[in-house]
Protein backbone atom coordinates (compact mmCIF):
# COMPACT_ATOMS: atom_id res chain seq x y z
CA UNK A 1 0.00 0.00 0.00
CA UNK A 2 1.22 3.47 -0.95
CA UNK A 3 -2.11 5.26 -0.49
CA UNK A 4 -5.74 4.53 0.35
CA UNK A 5 -7.70 6.25 -2.41
CA UNK A 6 -10.31 3.52 -2.90
CA UNK A 7 -10.78 0.01 -1.55
CA UNK A 8 -10.51 -1.41 -5.06
CA UNK A 9 -6.74 -0.89 -4.89
CA UNK A 10 -6.56 -3.60 -2.20
CA UNK A 11 -6.32 -7.33 -2.65
CA UNK A 12 -8.48 -9.59 -0.52
CA UNK A 13 -5.49 -10.46 1.67
CA UNK A 14 -4.60 -6.78 2.14
CA UNK A 15 -8.18 -5.90 3.06
CA UNK A 16 -8.42 -8.75 5.55
CA UNK A 17 -5.03 -7.80 7.01
CA UNK A 18 -6.24 -4.22 7.57
CA UNK A 19 -9.35 -5.46 9.36
CA UNK A 20 -7.29 -7.85 11.47
CA UNK A 21 -4.88 -5.05 12.41
CA UNK A 22 -7.83 -2.81 13.31
CA UNK A 23 -9.08 -5.48 15.70
CA UNK A 24 -5.64 -5.73 17.32
CA UNK A 25 -5.36 -1.97 17.74
CA UNK A 26 -8.87 -1.85 19.17
CA UNK A 27 -8.26 -4.65 21.68
CA UNK A 28 -4.69 -3.66 22.67
CA UNK A 29 -4.33 0.11 22.13
CA UNK A 30 -1.35 0.37 24.48
CA UNK A 31 0.70 -1.80 22.12
CA UNK A 32 0.36 0.89 19.42
CA UNK A 33 0.67 4.08 21.46
CA UNK A 34 4.03 4.88 19.87
CA UNK A 35 3.24 3.59 16.37
CA UNK A 36 3.22 7.12 14.89
CA UNK A 37 5.76 8.67 17.25
CA UNK A 38 7.44 11.61 15.49
CA UNK A 39 4.93 11.50 12.61
CA UNK A 40 2.72 14.40 11.54
CA UNK A 41 -0.49 14.02 9.53
CA UNK A 42 -2.22 16.92 7.76
CA UNK A 43 -6.00 16.77 7.35
CA UNK A 44 -7.42 18.80 4.43
CA UNK A 45 -11.18 19.20 4.66
CA UNK A 46 -13.33 20.85 1.99
CA UNK A 47 -16.48 19.46 3.64
CA UNK A 48 -17.62 19.72 7.27
CA UNK A 49 -17.36 16.62 9.41
CA UNK A 50 -17.95 15.20 12.87
CA UNK A 51 -16.95 11.52 12.81
CA UNK A 52 -14.17 11.78 10.22
CA UNK A 53 -12.42 14.72 11.82
CA UNK A 54 -12.72 13.57 15.43
CA UNK A 55 -11.88 9.92 14.74
CA UNK A 56 -8.75 10.80 12.76
CA UNK A 57 -7.59 13.50 15.20
CA UNK A 58 -8.03 11.43 18.35
CA UNK A 59 -6.88 8.25 16.62
CA UNK A 60 -3.61 9.85 15.49
CA UNK A 61 -3.05 11.14 19.04
CA UNK A 62 -3.64 7.65 20.47
CA UNK A 63 -0.95 6.34 18.10
CA UNK A 64 1.51 8.95 19.35
CA UNK A 65 1.37 11.14 16.25
CA UNK A 66 0.59 14.80 15.60
CA UNK A 67 -2.43 15.98 13.61
CA UNK A 68 -2.89 19.34 11.85
CA UNK A 69 -6.36 20.29 10.58
CA UNK A 70 -6.78 22.63 7.61
CA UNK A 71 -10.20 23.70 6.45
CA UNK A 72 -10.77 25.49 3.16
CA UNK A 73 -12.02 28.95 4.08
CA UNK A 74 -10.92 30.16 0.65
CA UNK A 75 -12.87 27.54 -1.26
CA UNK A 76 -12.07 24.18 -2.76
CA UNK A 77 -8.53 22.93 -3.15
CA UNK A 78 -7.00 24.16 -6.39
CA UNK A 79 -8.63 27.60 -6.44
CA UNK A 80 -6.29 29.67 -4.28
CA UNK A 81 -3.37 27.35 -4.92
CA UNK A 82 -3.07 24.40 -7.27
CA UNK A 83 -3.56 20.88 -5.98
CA UNK A 84 -0.04 20.07 -7.19
CA UNK A 85 1.45 22.92 -5.16
CA UNK A 86 -0.61 21.97 -2.13
CA UNK A 87 0.61 18.38 -2.35
CA UNK A 88 4.24 19.33 -2.96
CA UNK A 89 4.39 21.78 -0.10
CA UNK A 90 2.66 19.54 2.42
CA UNK A 91 4.99 16.70 1.48
CA UNK A 92 7.89 18.85 2.66
CA UNK A 93 6.61 18.76 6.23
CA UNK A 94 3.97 16.10 6.74
CA UNK A 95 4.30 12.31 6.77
CA UNK A 96 0.80 11.74 5.37
CA UNK A 97 -2.20 13.63 4.01
CA UNK A 98 -5.82 12.87 4.88
CA UNK A 99 -8.24 14.62 2.51
CA UNK A 100 -12.02 15.03 2.51
CA UNK A 101 -12.97 16.61 -0.80
CA UNK A 102 -15.83 17.28 -3.17
CA UNK A 103 -14.07 15.78 -6.20
CA UNK A 104 -12.22 12.47 -6.32
CA UNK A 105 -9.88 14.05 -8.88
CA UNK A 106 -8.54 16.23 -6.07
CA UNK A 107 -7.63 13.12 -4.06
CA UNK A 108 -5.90 11.63 -7.10
CA UNK A 109 -4.00 14.90 -7.66
CA UNK A 110 -2.72 14.94 -4.09
CA UNK A 111 -1.44 11.39 -4.52
CA UNK A 112 0.08 12.12 -7.94
CA UNK A 113 1.94 15.29 -6.99
CA UNK A 114 2.75 14.57 -3.35
CA UNK A 115 5.49 12.29 -2.07
CA UNK A 116 3.71 11.03 1.07
CA UNK A 117 0.78 8.63 1.56
CA UNK A 118 -2.68 10.05 0.87
CA UNK A 119 -5.83 8.75 2.56
CA UNK A 120 -9.25 9.44 1.07
CA UNK A 121 -11.47 10.58 3.94
CA UNK A 122 -14.40 11.02 1.51
CA UNK A 123 -14.86 12.16 -2.08
CA UNK A 124 -17.81 12.30 -4.43
CA UNK A 125 -17.12 8.76 -5.64
CA UNK A 126 -15.78 6.83 -2.64
CA UNK A 127 -15.73 6.66 1.16
CA UNK A 128 -13.19 3.88 1.84
CA UNK A 129 -12.59 4.64 5.53
CA UNK A 130 -16.31 4.33 6.25
CA UNK A 131 -16.51 1.00 4.45
CA UNK A 132 -13.52 -0.36 6.36
CA UNK A 133 -15.22 0.54 9.63
CA UNK A 134 -18.45 -1.04 8.40
CA UNK A 135 -16.85 -4.36 7.49
CA UNK A 136 -14.95 -4.34 10.78
CA UNK A 137 -18.30 -3.94 12.54
CA UNK A 138 -19.92 -6.72 10.52
CA UNK A 139 -17.01 -9.07 11.21
CA UNK A 140 -17.39 -8.49 14.94
CA UNK A 141 -21.03 -9.59 14.79
CA UNK A 142 -21.10 -12.11 11.96
CA UNK A 143 -17.60 -13.55 11.76
CA UNK A 144 -16.62 -14.78 8.29
CA UNK A 145 -17.25 -11.83 5.97
CA UNK A 146 -17.48 -14.05 2.92
CA UNK A 147 -20.73 -15.40 4.37
CA UNK A 148 -22.27 -11.99 5.03
CA UNK A 149 -25.42 -10.84 3.21
CA UNK A 150 -25.56 -7.05 3.23
CA UNK A 151 -28.32 -4.89 1.74
CA UNK A 152 -28.05 -1.19 0.98
CA UNK A 153 -31.30 0.73 0.59
CA UNK A 154 -31.68 4.28 -0.75
CA UNK A 155 -29.63 6.55 -3.00
CA UNK A 156 -26.64 4.98 -4.73
CA UNK A 157 -23.71 7.18 -3.66
CA UNK A 158 -20.05 7.19 -2.57
CA UNK A 159 -20.80 5.03 0.48
CA UNK A 160 -22.66 2.54 -1.69
CA UNK A 161 -19.71 2.36 -4.08
CA UNK A 162 -17.21 1.58 -1.34
CA UNK A 163 -19.48 -0.98 0.31
CA UNK A 164 -20.02 -2.74 -3.03
CA UNK A 165 -16.29 -2.83 -3.74
CA UNK A 166 -15.42 -4.10 -0.27
CA UNK A 167 -18.11 -6.78 -0.35
CA UNK A 168 -16.97 -7.97 -3.78
CA UNK A 169 -13.32 -8.25 -2.72
CA UNK A 170 -14.29 -10.07 0.48
CA UNK A 171 -16.49 -12.53 -1.42
CA UNK A 172 -19.64 -11.35 0.36
CA UNK A 173 -23.16 -11.00 -1.02
CA UNK A 174 -24.43 -7.46 -1.56
CA UNK A 175 -27.88 -6.34 -2.61
CA UNK A 176 -28.41 -2.70 -3.59
CA UNK A 177 -32.03 -1.54 -3.51
CA UNK A 178 -32.66 1.89 -5.03
CA UNK A 179 -35.55 3.83 -6.57
CA UNK A 180 -35.37 3.94 -10.35
CA UNK A 181 -32.91 6.59 -11.50
CA UNK A 182 -30.89 6.50 -8.27
CA UNK A 183 -28.63 3.48 -8.77
CA UNK A 184 -24.85 3.57 -8.26
CA UNK A 185 -22.47 4.67 -11.03
CA UNK A 186 -22.62 2.22 -13.92
CA UNK A 187 -18.87 2.02 -14.49
CA UNK A 188 -18.28 1.23 -10.83
CA UNK A 189 -21.02 -1.41 -10.93
CA UNK A 190 -19.21 -3.10 -13.83
CA UNK A 191 -15.93 -3.05 -11.89
CA UNK A 192 -17.66 -4.52 -8.86
CA UNK A 193 -19.23 -7.32 -10.90
CA UNK A 194 -15.76 -8.28 -12.10
CA UNK A 195 -14.31 -8.17 -8.57
CA UNK A 196 -17.19 -10.27 -7.26
CA UNK A 197 -16.65 -12.88 -9.99
CA UNK A 198 -12.94 -13.06 -9.10
CA UNK A 199 -13.53 -13.41 -5.35
CA UNK A 200 -16.70 -15.47 -5.10
CA UNK A 201 -18.98 -12.60 -4.14
CA UNK A 202 -22.23 -11.41 -5.66
CA UNK A 203 -23.93 -8.12 -6.44
CA UNK A 204 -27.66 -7.68 -7.08
CA UNK A 205 -29.25 -4.35 -8.04
CA UNK A 206 -33.01 -3.96 -7.79
CA UNK A 207 -35.80 -1.53 -6.96
CA UNK A 208 -37.79 -4.22 -5.14
CA UNK A 209 -37.72 -3.67 -1.37
CA UNK A 210 -38.69 -7.32 -0.93
CA UNK A 211 -35.07 -8.16 -1.76
CA UNK A 212 -34.41 -7.46 1.94
CA UNK A 213 -35.63 -10.99 2.63
CA UNK A 214 -32.79 -13.11 4.03
CA UNK A 215 -30.32 -10.27 4.53
CA UNK A 216 -28.14 -10.12 7.67
CA UNK A 217 -28.00 -6.33 7.80
CA UNK A 218 -29.58 -3.37 6.07
CA UNK A 219 -27.62 -0.19 5.47
CA UNK A 220 -29.04 3.19 4.51
CA UNK A 221 -27.80 6.75 4.09
CA UNK A 222 -29.30 10.18 3.58
CA UNK A 223 -31.45 10.46 0.49
CA UNK A 224 -29.66 13.67 -0.51
CA UNK A 225 -25.86 13.72 -0.28
CA UNK A 226 -23.93 16.69 1.10
CA UNK A 227 -23.54 19.34 -1.58
CA UNK A 228 -26.49 18.07 -3.65
CA UNK A 229 -28.96 20.92 -4.24
CA UNK A 230 -31.97 18.61 -4.64
CA UNK A 231 -34.88 19.51 -2.34
CA UNK A 232 -36.43 16.76 -0.22
CA UNK A 233 -39.96 17.46 -1.51
CA UNK A 234 -38.73 16.75 -5.05
CA UNK A 235 -37.84 13.14 -4.24
CA UNK A 236 -39.79 12.32 -1.07
CA UNK A 237 -42.63 10.47 -2.80
CA UNK A 238 -40.15 8.35 -4.74
CA UNK A 239 -38.05 7.50 -1.66
CA UNK A 240 -40.73 7.06 1.03
CA UNK A 241 -41.25 3.35 0.21
CA UNK A 242 -37.53 2.86 0.96
CA UNK A 243 -37.62 4.25 4.50
CA UNK A 244 -36.16 1.79 7.02
CA UNK A 245 -38.69 1.32 9.80
CA UNK A 246 -39.44 -1.38 12.35
CA UNK A 247 -42.32 -3.02 10.43
CA UNK A 248 -39.95 -3.40 7.46
CA UNK A 249 -37.19 -4.88 9.66
CA UNK A 250 -39.70 -7.28 11.22
CA UNK A 251 -41.34 -8.26 7.93
CA UNK A 252 -38.07 -9.29 6.32
CA UNK A 253 -36.43 -10.48 9.56
CA UNK A 254 -33.34 -8.30 9.18
CA UNK A 255 -31.34 -8.37 12.42
CA UNK A 256 -28.94 -5.44 12.08
CA UNK A 257 -29.27 -1.83 10.97
CA UNK A 258 -26.36 0.34 9.74
CA UNK A 259 -25.97 4.01 8.80
CA UNK A 260 -22.83 6.07 8.16
CA UNK A 261 -24.39 9.17 9.82
CA UNK A 262 -25.45 11.90 10.04
CA UNK A 263 -29.00 10.61 9.72
CA UNK A 264 -32.25 12.43 9.17
CA UNK A 265 -34.43 10.76 11.75
CA UNK A 266 -37.95 10.17 10.53
CA UNK A 267 -36.85 10.50 6.89
CA UNK A 268 -34.66 7.63 5.64
CA UNK A 269 -34.92 5.81 8.99
CA UNK A 270 -37.15 5.96 12.05
CA UNK A 271 -36.07 6.56 15.63
CA UNK A 272 -37.26 3.10 16.59
CA UNK A 273 -34.75 1.47 14.25
CA UNK A 274 -31.94 3.98 14.91
CA UNK A 275 -32.18 3.37 18.66
CA UNK A 276 -33.17 -0.29 18.51
CA UNK A 277 -31.23 -3.28 19.79
CA UNK A 278 -30.13 -4.21 16.26
CA UNK A 279 -28.66 -0.79 15.51
CA UNK A 280 -24.90 -0.80 14.93
CA UNK A 281 -24.51 2.92 14.27
CA UNK A 282 -22.39 3.80 17.31
CA UNK A 283 -20.16 0.76 16.85
CA UNK A 284 -19.64 1.83 13.24
CA UNK A 285 -18.73 5.31 14.44
CA UNK A 286 -16.25 4.00 16.99
CA UNK A 287 -14.73 1.63 14.46
CA UNK A 288 -13.95 4.52 12.14
CA UNK A 289 -11.04 5.35 14.45
CA UNK A 290 -9.75 1.78 14.70
CA UNK A 291 -10.00 1.10 10.97
CA UNK A 292 -8.31 4.39 10.10
CA UNK A 293 -5.58 3.74 12.64
CA UNK A 294 -4.91 0.41 10.95
CA UNK A 295 -4.52 2.25 7.63
CA UNK A 296 -2.17 4.83 9.18
CA UNK A 297 -0.02 2.19 10.87
CA UNK A 298 0.16 0.18 7.63
CA UNK A 299 1.13 3.21 5.53
CA UNK A 300 3.56 4.83 7.97
CA UNK A 301 5.21 2.01 9.88
UniProtKB/TrEMBL annotation:
Protein's pathway: Amino-acid biosynthesis; L-arginine biosynthesis; L-arginine from L-ornithine and carbamoyl phosphate: step 1/3
Q: Which residues form the Aspartate/ornithine carbamoyltransferase carbamoyl-P binding domain?
A: 2-140
Report the principal subcellular site: cytoplasm
EC no.?
Answer: 2.1.3.3
| Catalytic reactions on record | carbamoyl phosphate + L-ornithine = L-citrulline + phosphate + H(+)
Alphabetized UniProt keyword annotations = Cytoplasm, Transferase
Which amino acid positions bind carbamoyl phosphate, per UniProt? 100, 127-130, 260-261, 288
Does this entry carry the keyword Cytoplasm?
A: yes
Record domain Aspartate/ornithine carbamoyltransferase Asp/Orn-binding: where:
147-298
Q: Name one GO molecular function term.
A: ornithine carbamoyltransferase activity
Q: Which family does it belong to?
A: Belongs to the aspartate/ornithine carbamoyltransferase superfamily. OTCase family.
Q: Which HAMAP family match?
A: OTCase (MF_01109)
Q: What is this protein called?
A: Ornithine carbamoyltransferase
